[in-house]
């Protein structure tokens, strides 16, 4: 059997040596940068015990970090559920055979994908009062959740559409051949197979959504970043240590989310075999409406 793959050639001795040298050089450069950063922080006194002491106190965690973490998780969880519903509805809408459903769905998805999330949050909070002329107070929590839902739901709509289109055309044709209608083909054949292909992209977008809850800081939503970069440093004067600790908390949350997602994906792949390949999350907003996919024909 040939030692080459259909995707790449197996590296030879020279290529392996070159790769090892590049890996070593990259590691040395990264360690050097890390040393410079740590040395700079040490010279500025950022590792002084008094700056890190607040994070050893139970009252700081109980009254500030934990409440901020809970607020972050609450906003992220509700936004994730709503964004998944939004994405499924408009993703299927973009695959409709009917132009009066497909075209408006495409406009909605492209519109909200094209607007920066921060502007969406500002718009949701301040537009009602400005447009009506009355005092309308939109809670910061609601503004954050609606903004996250509209933006991430639009991205997920493209993920759902791409996942369904990734299922080979023969799968839907087989469904029609045994007498299933469009709804049955979608529910029983296309969506179950597409879910496995969509899982990595969906999880990736959920991680982005979780991190984007930090944008609530600018409208005074008291989430984790608000406590970590505003309230705790205001009380203890430890901005850099606080930023490091809050970053570690975010990293821990995302690692847990990634681990759970990997387990779900492996379990899904064991219980369901699909010919559809993995789907990547769309990188940027596109232009124009979508055409109906083969899965809905």
From TrEMBL:
It is a multi-pass membrane protein. One of its GO terms (cellular component) is ATP-binding cassette (ABC) transporter complex. One of its GO terms (biological process) is amino acid transport. PROSITE patterns: ABC_TM1 (PS50928). The chain crosses the membrane at residues 21-42, 65-90, 111-128, 140-167, 188-208, 239-262. NCBIfam families: HEQRo_perm_3TM (TIGR01726). This is Glutamate transport system permease protein. The lineage of its organism: Bacteria, Bacillati, Actinomycetota, Actinomycetes, Streptosporangiales.
